Amino acid sequence: MTPVTSFAGQKVALFGLGGSGLATAQALVLGGADVTAWDDNEAARAKASASGVRLADLRSEDWGEFAALVLAPGVPLTHPAPHWSAAKAIAAGVEVIGDIELFCRERAKLAPHAPFIAITGTNGKSTTTALTAHILRSAGMDVQLGGNIGTPILALEPPADHRFHVIECSSFQIDLAPSLNPTVGVLINLSPDHLDRHGTMENYADSKKRLVRQADVAFIGVDDPLCFAIGKELDGDSKGRAEKFVFPVSVRRDLRAGVWLDGTLIRSRTGADRILADLEGVKTLRGAHNAQNAAFATAAVSVWAFGDDVIQKGLSSFPGLAHRMEEVGRIDKAIFVNDSKATNADAAEKALLSFPDIYWILGGKPKEGGIEPLAPLFPKIRKAYLIGASAEDFARTLGDRVPHALCGTLEVAVTAAAADALESDAVEPVVLLSPACASYDQFPNFEVRGDAFRDLVKALVVKYQLT
Questions:
Q1: In what order do the strands lie in the sheet containing 34-38?
Q2: CA–CA separation, 40 vs 252, rounded Å?
Q3: What is the average pLDDT score of the chain?
Q4: What is the pTM of this model?
Q5: 273-278 vs 217-221, strand pairing mode
Q6: How does pLDDT run across 262-288, given as a tens digit for each residue?
Q7: 464 three-class SS
């Protein structure tokens, strides 16, 4: 854990006692702060109380006594309206910050030059963050991985000159971190998301931009127009500043300077020309979206003086992330891929683009727009297996364009898809769980859905081996 000493001897209000909120409360107390915490959820309060956090309803507290309000990132700061705790803090002139900000202040005190890689974007953040950390660990570095992925940032070990922090940052976390200043900042891409919390696309983009604007070295995707504009703006701002470097990253075209994809090669021209890595044969990074993730991860790591062979070793040994294009089994020629994280059509599109002969398991609690946006990819689908609440609606969308079966449950769908894939004439048929839906009609979350798929496939593999 990273003790937060910047508020030692001061009173701090904290709202939101989920995973990151509880870790933040404990880190503040460990650093000597007098913390008063609250959460509207009774179970969260009970858990915090059991861990020794002092609770009080912040509605009735004297806000003039607080030095800061530490807000959990899931709590609205501005839109659709400020949460009541944020409104009280603002009215009292109390700063509103988050756990990333607390980490940055500790880094400034303890080790201002400690290597810190912060990664954001609409899509691909988790894979890029995990891959960056994996490459560094394979090089023998002390790496702390967390933030919006897995471990809360303050539950990690403290900043140190020899220790890398590789942190995924959501827009909500960035909004609560005014002094966020990573060694390397990464902005992968931008598309409309969380507009209910940001109000406008411009506000959302401005939030993401802050991460790379304040980085020593920034890598910015230029394959979408919003990021392209941000990269152009920040590149202009950096002219004449020796301490600031901004580099574009693309998987669609060659760049005169920056990092780009040349076939399967990730090339860099951020100084001397070099090939950072080759994606050929790296099965955990299939598809153009994963090529983009790999380009950013290798670019971030290349800021330090690692040999290209070290980067390639890390890239080639990356196991992938659970529930994201995760190969969970093979039976004869058939591959089984768990992409349960694909909870909308845009996410499912990435998987459908990555394989030629697909036996597609989809469905659940539908999202707005359904699967009609995926119609251009329907010719790649040998057959669809429909589950959950969306099954009948999706069947109407598929119509006579895609052979399909109403399976109802995941178990029925896996059994049917496996049988059809093994009987097909495809060279390498793929049974793909990429639901394009939320899981809540049949599973508590996408992780449980993906685990169920993995278990069903393992049972089929055992059954196949015994026959």
A1: 34-38, 11-15, 68-71, 95-97
A2: 47
A3: 92
A4: 0.86
A5: unpaired
A6: 999 999 998 778 999 999 989 889 888
A7: helix
Q: For residue 430, what are its two tokens? A: 């793929």
**C-alpha span between 134 and 144 (Å, rounded):** 10
> Domain boundaries in the chain?
11-97, 109-316, 326-466
Q: What is the pLDDT of residue 379?
A: 96
Confidence of residue 57 (pLDDT cuts 50, 70, 90): very high
User: Which pLDDT score, from 0 to 100, does residue 272 have?
Assistant: 78
What are the tens digits of pLDDT across the range 174-213? Answer: 999 999 999 999 999 987 655 566 667 787 888 889 999 9
- Judge whether 129 and 118 are in contact, CB under 8 Å: no
Tokens 């969380």, located at residue: 194
Question: Which CATH fold topology does 326-466 show?
Answer: Protein-Tyrosine Phosphatase; Chain A (3.90.190)
Q: With bands split at pLDDT 50, 70 and 90, how would you rate the model's confidence at 466?
A: confident
Cβ partners under 8 Å of residue 169, min gap 6: 100, 118, 119, 120, 125, 147, 148, 177, 180, 211
Instruction: List the structure tokens of 308.
Output: 């290209």
What length does the chain have?
467
Nearest CA-CA partner of 298 in 169, 170, 164, 136: 136
Q: Does residue 93 register a pLDDT over 90?
A: yes
> With bands split at pLDDT 50, 70 and 90, how would you rate the model's confidence at 112?
very high
**Helix (H/G/I), strand (E/B), else coil: 55:** strand
The residue type of 417 is A
The token pair that represents 432 in the structure block:
């793909």
What sign does the dihedral 63-67-72-78 (CA atoms) show? positive
Residue 242 region by backbone torsions, left for phi larger than 0, else alpha for psi between -120 and 50, else beta: alpha
Q: CATH topology for 11-97?
A: Rossmann fold (3.40.50)
pLDDT of residue 195: 58
Q: Are 273 and 255 in contact (CB under 8 A)?
A: no
Higher pLDDT, 404 or 252: 404
Note the CATH number of domain 109-316: 3.40.1190.10
Q: What is the DSSP letter of 370?
A: T
List, as one string, the DSSP characters of 241-297.
-TT-EEEEEESSS--SSEEEEETTEEEEESSSEEEEEE-TT-GGG-SHHHHHHHHHH
Residue type, 436: A
Pairing mode, strands 365-366 and 437-438: antiparallel
* Chain center to CA of 41: 25
Alpha helices (H) along 114-224: 125-138, 171-175, 195-198, 201-213
Residue type, 345: A
Tell me the residue type at 111: A
Task: Please give the angle made by the CA atoms of 209, 210 and 216, to the nearest 5 degrees.
Answer: 100
